[in-house]
Amino acid sequence: MKTSTPRAKVAEGLRALVSAEDILEAARRLGALQRQRKVDLVALVESTVAAVTPMPGTQTTAFANYIALTGQKLSPSAFFERFNHAFGQLMREVASRAVQAVREAVGEDTPFNELGALLDAFTDVQVADSTCQLLQRLAADWAPSTSEARPAAFKWHALVSLKDELPVADGVTPQRTQDTRALPDEALSPGTLTFMDLGYTDTGRFLDAIEAGAHFLVRLKAQHDPKLLRVHVGKGERVRARGMRLTDALLQGVLKAEDGVIDVDVQLEKHGRTAQARVVAVEGPEGERRWYLTTVGRDVLKAREVAEAYRLRWRVELLFKALKSGVGLTALRATRPGAVLSLVYAKVIALALSRLLELSMQQKAGEPGQEQATGRLALVLALTRCAPLLLSHAMMSRGVTLEQLEERILLIAEVTARSRQQRRERERRKREASLGSGG
């Protein structure tokens, strides 16, 4: 369902990106509808997405939103039980559809001068990366972290297209999961170029990419020691260098930098599989040497251009910052995997909404007397502050009257107060029990 202008898409918000029919169809297919018989699934999706706030307690905000939309009287525990695995899978599909809707609205002609000739050489230029978020200790059984002090955490792994800085594929895993294991299959799509950091160094995956016709550019780990095939840029004994390990050639002085650059062909090998790749080293302004492994040809990127292109990886951090500081990925207080999954993808949907807001601002900037001077993060923060307006629009669409609105406000206050009182009573009993055992 699409609206007539980009601005109307923001106003339509939750309903414009994915229709109620889409949500219910996906829910039936994923089994979420069968497991949520007594709940209004469309309202549950809308209320969860509308809980875009960097303040702790996303689920509590979603709970209040749900009562406001439906008028259903639920206890907080009964509501939180709705955030199960099936609902998490539903939210993931809704997020995927929302991102695709924004991608279609952005179009293919969005300029990105930093990519330059890369867009002509590859079908897409992508970044594979992940961001980590701590959870409460109760989640440690399914989401163990690497910290003893904070034993629970998850990672959101994303493959982001630099054409529009939106995820092409993603996944949620415990923090201890290695990045290479969580690398989306889309990173091996033929004709694509994917930038990766050191966490994705895995020869087997590189061989998979080469065999699939995909390209990569990654930092080379110090312990990674490929065999030299040919020296293209570098001083020393080029003929003797052939067949030597890279480390040996450097230590023995057989291979040296030429004007601060080394560019060689190497052989990757693992379990009998072999393939040719390229290693580039470039000295930085302070004399430090950075090593890169890639399959990008020299006709596309010269040695120094390899280092410059790799810097484009930083743009994925803008997406992570928008999710964390903007729509509140850091506000998650859930402990069950289904709840975490649901809330993570609610944040991705909210991010898609912020991109519609960005399109509206760009349209406004093109009008006489207007200028585009609003940063992307500022627009994300603006969306979080306007979330009550989006919720109000959803309530109007459902025909909620002022009288019903007042009743629902009182219901929220009643349920919240009762829940708070019960929590305090449990804490009081615990203190009394601890004092009794100490006596």
Give the fraction of residues assigned to helices: 40-55%
The backbone outline, from C-alpha atoms, is elongated
Number of strands: 11
Unreliable stretches, pLDDT < 50, 5 or more residues?
Answer: 1-11, 368-374
Organism: Pyxidicoccus parkwayensis
Pfam family, one: DDE_Tnp_1
Keywords: DNA recombination, DNA-binding, Transposition
Protein name: IS4 family transposase
Please provide a written account of the structure:
There is one protein chain. Residues 1-11 and 368-374 have low confidence and may be disordered. The chain has helices spanning 6-17, 20-30, 32-35, 41-49, 58-70, 76-80, 85-106, 118-121, 203-212, 238-241, 246-251, 303-310, 315-326, 337-365, 376-385, 387-397, 402-438; strands spanning 124-134, 153-161, 166-174, 192-196, 215-219, 227-233, 235-236, 255-256, 261-270, 273-283, 289-294. Helix 2 crosses helix 7. The protein is 47% helix and 18% strand. It is an alpha+beta fold. The longest helix is centred in the C-terminal third of the chain and has 37 residues, at 402-438. The protein is elongated. Strands 3-2-1-4-5-11-10-9-6 form a nine-stranded mixed sheet. The protein has a two-stranded antiparallel sheet with strand order 7-8. This is IS4 family transposase. Keywords: DNA recombination, DNA-binding, Transposition. It comes from Pyxidicoccus parkwayensis. Residues 124-352 form the Transposase IS4-like domain. InterPro entries: RNaseH-like_sf (IPR012337), Transpos_IS4 (IPR047952), Transposase_11 (IPR002559).
